[in-house]
Amino acid sequence: MAMLSDAASPAATVDASAPGAVAETPYYIELRNVTLVYGEGDGQILAIENLQLQLRRGDFIAVVGPSGCGKSTLTKLVTGLLPPTAGTIIVDGKRVQAPIKDVGMAFQNATLMPWRTTLGNVMLPLEVVEPHKSRLRHARAEYVARAEALLRSVGLQGFAAKHTWELSGGMQQRASLCRALIHEPHLLMLDEPFAALDAFTREELWSIMQDLWLQRRFTTILVTHDLREAVYLADTVHVMSNRPGRFVLRRDVDLPRPRTLGTTFDPRFIDIVHELRDKIGEVKAA
């Protein structure tokens, strides 16, 4: 069972007559028999088939699997950037029918705007996401203080006025995490956010990411090829099959938090990593 925060209660009952409303569900995110087909006619590709997934509010899961299995596609489906061909996706008691707003996203490339300062990049979502967009003009000092506090929490104090080219890759990724969290989303999607970094920086950011989650308990879906990263950060790891992507293994990570780099040498940690690696090897050979 994935770790729950105090806020990880069943989704609130919604008005069944409201647009996109569904019957009450105990889950914050639920995928019901989700299938995705790319293309048309003879060029059709069955990318994902009958995918089932349930997350409670505050869960942190990781999704792993062979390249091309649909891990990144899953993040686009959950956030409404791609509509499923069949099945239902529910987030916070409502069927996903368009891109959802209450989400933060971080990717392999930090994608910071080079003409903006670090602070300006972090504050970007406040300029486009309501209700912050409407409040920003009159509460800028409050929001600047919030952004600076986030930067301090990831070790970027003193870098608010720096531009992208003045930051290392690890610093850029820290700023990207702050940007994903500045509007206090309930859902965080991480798609290979540390893959381009060196091993030392990557492991340092695991600790920072865990600290942020322990403080805020946002629901998190991490897509990664790094099995150690998945086991270090998540409370449950899901393994996907080759295309068409399906979940073929759910592995709960029953290791206490907070985890440290020393945890990665724990025989239980190593056993889970080996179990996941063996399953992915089995999937690739199928």
Output the CATH topology. Rossmann fold
Total domain modules: 1
Mean pLDDT: 89
Q: From the coordinates shown, what is the CATH architecture?
A: 3-Layer(aba) Sandwich
- Classified by CATH, the class is Alpha Beta
Low-confidence stretches: 1-19
Class derived from helix and strand content: alpha/beta
Order of helices and strands: EEEHEEEHHHHEHEHEEH
Number of strands: 10
General form: globular
Biggest sheet record = 6 strands, mixed
Kindly report the name of the CATH homologous superfamily.
Answer: P-loop containing nucleotide triphosphate hydrolases
- Beginning-to-end CA distance, first to last residue: 28 Å
By DSSP (H or I, 4+ residues per run), the number of helices equals 8
- State the strand order across the main sheet: 6-7-8-3-9-10
Strand content: 15-25%
What helical percentage do the residues reach? Answer: 25-40%
Radius of gyration: 19 Å
Plain-language structure description:
The chain has helices at 71-78, 118-122, 132-136, 140-153, 169-181, 199-216, 227-233, 267-285, and strands at 29-38, 45-55, 60-64, 86-91, 94-95, 103-107, 187-191, 219-223, 236-240, 247-252. It is α/β, with parallel strands linked by helices and 286 residues long. The chain has one domain: P-loop containing nucleotide triphosphate hydrolases (Rossmann fold, 3-Layer(aba) Sandwich). A hairpin with a 6-residue loop joins strand 9 (236-240) and strand 10 (247-252). It is globular. The two termini are 28 Å apart. Residues 1-19 have low confidence and may be disordered.
Describe the secondary structure blueprint for this structure.
Layout: E1 29-38, E2 45-55, E3 60-64, H1 71-78, E4 86-91, E5 94-95, E6 103-107, H2 118-122, H3 132-136, H4 140-153, H5 169-181, E7 187-191, H6 199-216, E8 219-223, H7 227-233, E9 236-240, E10 247-252, H8 267-285
Parallel strand pairs: 3-8, 3-9, 6-7, 7-8
Antiparallel strand pairs: 1-2, 1-4, 4-5, 9-10
